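Re: beginner question about structure tokens

> Can someone show what the tokenized structure looks like for a real chain? I only ever see the sequence side.

Sure, here's an example I had lying around. Input first:
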Amino acid sequence: MLKGIRHIGLGKCCRHVLAVLACMLLSHISMPVSYAQSAAAALKMNPKAYTGKSAWWYNYQYFPELTIFGQSDDTIPDVKHRYSFYINGGYAGFEFSHTPASAQKSLGLGFGGRYNYFVSPNWGFRTGLGLDYAKTTAKMGEFVDDFLKTDQESDQVHYHYSFSSVEEDYDIYMLSVPLQLVYQYKRLMGGFGIKPAFPISVAYSQTITDINTKAYFPQYDVWVDDSWVMACGDYPYVPTSNKYMASPIVILATADLEYMIPVNRKFSIGVSAFIDYSINSSFSFRKSQLSSVNTDQNSMVGTTNEVPISLVNNSLLSGKKNYESEAVVQHIHYMNAGLRVSLNVNSYGPPKPRTKPY
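And the corresponding structure tokens:
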């Protein structure tokens, strides 16, 4: 026997022993009959069917290539509903046009959920609900204006003011509802439409530097240029923090392109690029929470009614230049662009009739 083993060779002997053990194991494990029979036939034809690069476990397609809507068989039904939960990040905020002020967009973050309803294998509709946060910094240089007020003695006072610069930081929280038409081809899905957005909070912090104010009393033909009681004189800087009580509804044009990575038939991971841009560029903010400002013209700088009088500043978003009877910022856009990562959950329609024989 030892001579026989030496004649056959130790390596060949070991391979034959492994092949026999594999057959014995195959008869005891749970495996589809058709696959077990094909594996046994392959073993008889090739003793190396369970070892090396020709082994079944080496060539088995553990993650099959999925076609449209995650299908791998023509008899699998099409996706009818898709639920998505996402987070996104990118570049977002206000931008100004046709104005002496400039706005710099910054960080944008958001999360939400979306629902897709497919009317055909390729076409569908989408809606949902999302919450986005954006931060913007706005700046404007030298500014000169005036405003009128009536004091507690019913005297009319004409205020003239100037400042060298203003800087504002906005924190914007926007709630939006997408209304989109979507098209899907294999692992790609694109959507476009509109997105009504509701600014649920627009808070700002502002610093105006080098303010100079003086007041004219026409009844007495008197100028007052240095009186802290009348809020007249030079102020190195005046900081203000506030929030808008009423914000306009923004209509956004929206588009996105998503690439889906299937996990299985039910779940997939989506990675998409998106952009939202406001259609209504002339929307304006109504007023901020400045309850004691005595200026009907909503000027950039106003005064309180109480004595001693103090200065109260308005925001660039709602301030007006009374000399020209127009808003300081006439055109305000909102933009949000970036990347979105989503978890998609598929729900399928009824099974399709088979087009291939069993």
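Each token stands for a local structural state, so reading them left to right follows the chain. The radius of gyration is 35 Å.
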